């Protein structure tokens, strides 16, 4: 939780500085952020849907596909996510 509070505080500080020096924020408008959220959630529809069709409950489907980890990122107090995008080591 501390990470989220520090992140929010840093964002607020930058916002205040932007206001003081009369600069507009380069951040996208809220509608773009909602669209990004839709993309992240949409990525999980098929894997979770497949699990639901096989008879699992929604919470189990989210756990099996790690959808919650993907959508929310690493939550405070949880173990770091294992990297799955690293290439396999070269064989000699």
Describe the overall structure.
This protein is mainly α and 92 residues long. 60% of the residues lie in helices and 0% in strands. It is built from five helices and no strands. It has helices spanning 2-20, 30-42, 45-53, 58-65, 67-72. α3 packs across α4. The longest helix has 19 residues, at 2-20. The protein is elongated and about 55 Å long. The termini are far apart. The mean pLDDT is 80.
Topology:
Elements: H1 2-20, H2 30-42, H3 45-53, H4 58-65, H5 67-72
Helix pairs in contact: 3-4
Low-confidence stretches: none
Structural category is mainly alpha
Major sheet attributes = none
The span between the termini is: 45 Å
The Cα radius of gyration reads 19 Å
- Global outline: elongated
Secondary structure: helix percent = 55-70%
Alpha plus pi helix count = 5
Mean pLDDT: 80
Tag the structure with descriptive keywords:
92 residues, mainly alpha, 5 helices, elongated
Quick gist of this model?
The chain is mostly helical.
